[in-house]
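#data-curation
PF: Archiving a pair of folding outputs for the training set. Convention for this channel: one message per protein, sequence first, C-alpha cells after, nothing in between. First:
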Amino acid sequence: MIENIHIVVYNRVSSAAQSLELQESAATRYLESRDLVANKESIMHLSDNNVSATKYSMYERPKLMKLIRLIKEGKVGTVICYKRDRFARNFYEYVEIAEIFIKHNVDVVYTASNEPGFQKKQALEAFYGMLAQMEGENLRTRTNDTRKQYPSRIFGYTKKKEKDQVNYFIDESKKDLIRTLFIESSNVNDEEQFIEFLLTRRAELTKPERIIRILTNPFYSAHYETNLGYQLLPHVEPIVSLETFLNANSQVDKFLTYYEEQLQKVERLATLTPVCGECDGSMKHRKANPLDQGYFVCRDNHKRVAISVRELNDLINQTVLDYVQTISIKHAEKIILKRIRTEIKNLLQKQKKVTSEYLDTSVEISTLDQRYHSSISMYLDKIRLLKEQSTSISSDISALNDLSNDIKTIKQLTKLELNLSQQEMQQLIELLVDEIHVFEDYIEIKLFLSVFQKDMDVS
C-alpha cells in the first residue's frame, strides 16, 4: 500500500476524550466531492491521538513524523487536514512543516470552512503559523483561567451544578481545619516556626506541599488572581476573607525559599541507593516527613537489614576519603585511559562494519533492476537504520573521549588535601562508588577503581 500512496489524511486530537469524527468527516466529504473515495489504495489515514501540540513537539508525534518521512520519500502528492493547528501550534514548527510541503511540491487541503487555503509561499504560511500559535496560547490561558475559577475538585468544597450555573459550597467537616490553617500561618514569625508549622500533622493534611497549595490559593477567599489583581468569584462561598488569605500568602512567600533549601539539603544526603546484602534487592528509603533524613530498609522480609541515611553517608564519605589517600593518581589515570582506548577500538571496528554495510546497500539500490522496484523501500529503511547506528556509535565514541575530563576531575580533587566542598565530595562519590551492600552487621562499599586495579593486576 505504501508504494501506491498519493493522498494522506492527517488528524490530531489533544486528549483521549476528544473525537476524530469531525476531522474524518470533513476529509471524507472532500474526497467524495473529488470522486476519490473508491481509490482506497492511494489514500492513507494518519492520526495522532491524545497528543497536545502545546505539550509535545512535532518530533514527539509519531504519525506526523511518518507523514513527513513519506513526503521526503516522494510518496505523497496531497495532504488533507482539518486546520493548520492540527499540524502545529508553535510558529517555528509550523514554518518548518510548511517549508517541507512547499519544497516537495505537496498540495495541502484544509477542510475547515473558515480556514484559509494553503499558500505555496513561505511568508504567507509563516503568518498563518503565527496566528495558530497565538490561538494555542490563548487556548492555554483560557484553560488555566477556567481551572482557577472552576476546579474539577478542591479540598474543602463540594461542587454542585444548578441549572446552568456551577457553585462551590463549603464542606462543613473541613471548614474549621482550613480556617485554622490560615490563621496559624499568619502568626508565624521566623523560619524555624514556619518549618514547625508545615510539619505539624493534621487530619487529612499531612503533606507540607498540600498545605502550601492551600495557603497560596485565593479560591478559599472566593477570589482568583489576574493581571488586574484579585477578582471576586460569586459562585464560591469564602472560607476566609481576602485579607486573611493575603496575610497567609505573604508568610509563605517570605519563608518558602528557606523551606526549599532545607529540602534540597535532605535530598542531597540520599544520593545513592544501597542494596540488601541478603537478597540483592534495592532498599527502600523511608522518612517521617520531607525534612527527615530517614533510613534505608530491605523491601522484602529482611527487616533487620537497615541503616540510617546519615550513618550510610558518613561511611561512604570516609571510605572514599580513605581510598583517595591511598590511590596512585598516575596509575588511576593509566587504568581509565586503557579502558577508554579498548572501548573506542571496539566501537571503531563496529562503525567500520556499519559503514561498509551502508556503502554496499547504497550500491545495491543504485544498481537495482527495474523488476525489483518494489524493494526500494526495504533498502531505504535499511540505509536509514545503518545511518542511525553509525550516529549512535559516533556519540558513544565522543562520550568516551569526554571521560578524560573525569580523569582531570579526580586529579584536581585529590590535590586539594581533602579540603573538599560538598559538591566536590559528591563528584568523587559519583565517580568512585560502584555498589553498596548492607548486611545486618556491616556494610560493603565497592569502588570502581578498586575493581579496575584487580583487572590490571591480572592482566
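PF: Second:
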Amino acid sequence: MTIAVTGAGGQLGRLVVDDLLARGVPAAEIVAGTRRPEALADLAGRGVQVRHVDFDDVASLDAAFAGAEKVLVVSGTDFGRRAAQHEAAAAAAQRAGASLVAYTSAPYAGTTTMLLAAEHRASEEAIRALGVPFAFLRNSWYFENYTAQLPTFLEHGAIVGAAGDGRVSGAARADFAAAAAAVLATEGHENAVYELGGEPPFTLGQLADVVSKATDRPVAYREVPAEELRTILLGAGLPEPMAAILADVDTHIAQGALFTDTGDLTRLIGRPTSSLEDAVAAAVAAL
C-alpha cells in the first residue's frame, strides 16, 4: 500500500511522514509531496519517495499520486485559493484510484461561521461532490499557535484577546499529525468526520496562568473587543485579512467554536493528548 502526503515539507506534513515511519510503514511505500523536493533529501535518503507537488500544477499532482492508495491533502496556505487547490488535489487522487482521501480541515467546518473555516467548508463540499471516499480531520487549535507568541506575551506581560471564557480544545501539532497517520495507516475510516481536539480544554486566562508559572514572570489575560484586537494585530504588522481572521477566531472561541469533547483525537492516537503545561515548558526552554 502506498500512502501520499502533501505538504511534507511543512510542519504538519513532515510530522505525519515521521509518524508513519515510526509506525513501521515501509519508507518505500510513503510518498512525501512538496514544492521543494530538495529540502527533503534526508527523507529520500531513508527510502521515502519524495515527489514534487504543486496544487496549481495538475500534472505534478497526477505524477505524485500515481500508485497511491491513500492520500492526505494537508490544507494549503494560499488563502483565497485553497478550495480550488484542495479540490484539484482530491480529484487527482481519485484519478489515481485512491481508496481514501484524507483532508485536514477546521472544527465544525460544515456549520461554523468562523471566517477561517470558510475555505475548509468549500473544500469538504468539493471533495464530497467528487464521490471519492474521504476522511475529514477537523483539527482544533495547535498549542504552537500560542507558544510561538511567547516572546510577545513576556514582552507585554499579557495575552490580549477577545475570547472571553471560551474554551480551546488545543493539542500539540504532533498529536494532530499522529491522528492523520493513524487514519492513513489503518482501515475503517471511509467517509468519517473527526472533530479533533485535546483534553482538557483551556481558556486564554488559563493559558496566561500556565505561561506565568512556567516563566516565573507575571502574564495576565487582557480581554478587549474584537475590533480593538484587529487593530492591535494590524499594528503588530499583520495584513488586514489575517488580522480580521484572527480577531474573528477569538470571537468564535468565546462561542465555543474551538471546543470539542468527542474524544476522537485520543481514540485515534491511542494515548492521552499532550498537555498544555508540557508544551509551554518546552517552548520556554527553547527561548
